[in-house]
Amino acid sequence: MSPRHSAAEARRTRERIVERGMALASCDGLEGLTIGRLAADLKMSKAGVLGHFGTKEALQLATLSGAAAAFSRLVWEPAADAEPGLPRLRAVCDAWIAYMDTARDVFPGGCFFTTASVEFDARSGPVRESLARMHRAWRRRLAAEVRTAVAAGDLPADSDPEQVVFELVGLFMALNQEIQLFAAPDAVDRARRTLDRLLGPRRESPVP
Amino acid sequence: MSPRHSAAEARRTRERIVERGMALASCDGLEGLTIGRLAADLKMSKAGVLGHFGTKEALQLATLSGAAAAFSRLVWEPAADAEPGLPRLRAVCDAWIAYMDTARDVFPGGCFFTTASVEFDARSGPVRESLARMHRAWRRRLAAEVRTAVAAGDLPADSDPEQVVFELVGLFMALNQEIQLFAAPDAVDRARRTLDRLLGPRRESPVP
DNA sequence: CCTACCGATCGGTAGG
DNA sequence: CCTACCGATCGGTAGG
User: What positions does the DNA-binding region cover (chains A, B) (predicted)?
Assistant: First the structure.
């Protein structure tokens, strides 16, 4: 415990650790996220860092939760007010593409969840299971919008929602590679073109 | 050097190290590939392992080369005799999907190159550059087949080869996630359906 | 190819 | 929140 600091100060310190952990893990993965490096970056002792979590695995899970909260704020919340179905689906996908392109301050190493899930997809344990749960939840939400769009006649009646979501996931991972591995200037354009092909061309304003 | 063994024996040992390294790195990444673990698995000393490469980075590069050779053998060679253009493109993509699905003995942790390139895409140095070069070479070869297919009238005349390749890359990465993170039984079916949508439906036999 | 090391860093603990 | 540790493991070297 911290006799010299208030509970609010301790919470704030914990937030700072998680925030820095998210940035580090986006570059070096959740295993490359070491307590010593985190402590040095934050000018704290290793014990001071670890005390907030107990174990490295708990630190990884806390970093994962923090990243999921940031992802919700950057991708889902901006689209929350859009009309359910195709409009919201487009809004979410646009925000997702923007998150890949511009969320460098939060995730300097690119998409945190691509890095972490590829890193853990051949391991076992709570970190992997937490990642799988998050991906499943996001896929479910995307699929629900596809279904609404189909019901509204905004996507072909024979669309397979899971299939559309599978292709969207591929689009986001390919975009991440385009940005991170190749630093391709036209990465976002390419992603948008794929999106238009999957969901139909964008309309500037609603057409009756 | 190895006074007790012939050069051929040394070469064989090096191959064994690289082979085991490919399997380990497909699970734990090229950083998670440690000399100590490799030595223990092969019942060698750490110095015995490292002596074949000199540094860990050289070991990582050798493992990368070995994996590229395996990938060529599994994905490019089976399609080498197919007719250039769409038939060969389909053959390569089919082999690529089969590689994801069945190359478990060589790469038990799934696609080695997805793991390694996501792991290194936010770092700098020779490993990252080597990975980027490999991905670029494969993309070039895929794009060349797309161009041939367009010229032959087997793909729409307005196809953008780089765009098609971008979408194929996404398909392979999404398939890897489907298999590794979700162990989805219908992963290969989904990938094939996307492939049919991208390249047109498969024909059982050539139609005049 | 081995044994026997090296300093650095890992995750984690004791005690204040 | 700190200092001061712990054993284990890291990449790598010397010398045979």
Answer: 34-53
The first and second tokens of residue A191, run together, are: 């992603």
Nearest-Cα residue of chain B relative to residue A165: B174
Query: Count H helices, E strands: chain A?
Result: 9, 0
Nucleotides of strand C lying closer than 7 angstroms to a protein CB: 1-5, 9-16
Which residues between 111 and 140 in chain B have a beta carbon less than 8 angstroms from any beta carbon of chain A? Answer: 114-115, 117-119, 121-123, 128, 131-132, 135-136
What does the pLDDT profile of chain B (208 residues) look like in tens digits?
Answer: 444 578 889 999 999 999 999 999 999 999 999 999 999 999 999 999 999 999 999 999 999 999 999 999 999 999 999 999 999 999 999 999 999 999 999 999 999 999 999 999 999 999 999 999 999 999 999 999 999 999 999 999 999 999 999 999 999 999 999 999 999 999 999 999 999 999 998 655 444 4
Q: Is A62 in contact with A151 (CB distance < 8 Å)?
A: no
Indicate the pTM of the whole model: 0.95
- Whether residue B95 lies inside any domain: the answer is yes
Domain count, chain A: 1
Residue in A with minimal Cα distance to B170: A170
Q: Where in the sequence is the domain holding A160, given as residue range(s)?
A: 61-199
How far is Cα A175 from Cα B44, in angstroms, rounded to an integer?
A: 42
Given an 8 Å threshold on Cβ–Cβ distance, is B109 in contact with A115? no
- The CATH number of residue B27's host domain is 1.10.357.10
Instruction: Find, among A72, A141, A77, the residue nearest to A113 by Cα.
Output: A72
In a domain, A162, yes or no: yes
Stated in angstroms, how far is A38 CA from C14 C1'?
A: 22
Distance CA(B2)–CA(B51), nearest Å, equals 10
**Within-domain flag for A17:** no
Residue B57 belongs to a domain: yes
Footprint of strand C on the protein (CB under 7 A): A 1, 33-37, 46-47, 50, 54-57; B 1-2, 4-5, 9-10, 13-14, 43-49, 51-52
The one-letter amino acid code at B13 reads T
Q: Interhelix angle for A112-120 vs A161-180, to 10°?
A: 100
d(CA B100, CA B111): 6
Residue of B nearest to A28 (CA): B119
